[in-house]
Amino acid sequence: xxxxxxxxxxxxxxxxxxxxxxxxxxxxxxxxxxxxxxxxxxxxxxxxxxxxxxxxxxxxxxxxxxxxxxxxxxxxxxxxxxxxxxxxxxxxxxxxxxxxxxxxxxxxxxxxxxxxxxxxxxxxxxxxxxxxxxxxxxxxxxxxxxxxxxxxxxxxxxxxxxxxxxxxxxxxxxxxxxxxxxxxxxxxxxxxxxxxxxxxxx
Length: 202
Ligand code: HEM
Ligand code: HEM
Known about the structure:
Largest sheet: 2 strands, antiparallel
Order of helices and strands: HHHEEH
CATH class: Mainly Alpha
Oligomer: single chain
Bound molecules: protoporphyrin IX containing FE
Number of strands: 2
Number of domains: 1
Helix content: 55-70%
Strand content: under 5%
């Protein structure tokens, strides 16, 4: 822990919560689809993994819409010490790319199921199709979804690496802004009234 915790202006708790919940959802969304092969095609377990991939993916879409509304009213807190302008521009570009990914991937998934004429499940509900059935289109969209999904690993990896770089090498508060404040244990002093604690006063 570096010594400037008190000066750290953090993201508000809701934005932090949504950020880390999105990470957890993405881990599940990726794991469900990457490991669906552990159950043979056509089995109920294989289908359940796909359905959960789709439902949690759609949850990412809804959560991101809410997050963007929140972001529009609550600006990001400043970083201390302030990074150079080119880094701020790079971070902004990366965040835009991540938001585009968080909206684009689930939308592509929704379009795939629409084009394939399949139901679009959402926790007992069904989303309406966005396209009329078109098998060839479904296939093309699936290729794009897979390509952007692989790109996502790179984007998220770079983003997390940048956060760690700021924390450990630039030693600024970029990462701490996204983490809850550490609880500092309160010490009960038994000192006599008027006595000064070490470091207090002159
Ligand atoms: C953040 C959201 C999402 C991510 C990161 C994601 C990621 C992926 C990835 C990486 C694959 C390719 C797996 C492979 O073939 O190697 C895939 C496949 C697929 N995804 Fe998504 N996806 C997301 C949301 C959705 C949603 C919302 C839907 C549908 C409503 C969906 C439907 C599909 C379908 C139908 C496949 C093809 C599965 C198969 O080949 O059987 N995805 N997804
Ligand atoms: C893997 C671990 C992750 C770490 C360590 C991490 C860390 C951080 C940090 C420190 C910030 C603040 C950056 C700044 O203000 O410049 C941030 C913001 C952000 N993160 Fe992450 N993140 C992670 C995963 C993710 C994932 C999986 C996504 C979504 C794909 C994501 C999307 C974003 C976005 C969009 C922002 C910008 C927030 C804003 O609008 O100000 N992060 N992240």
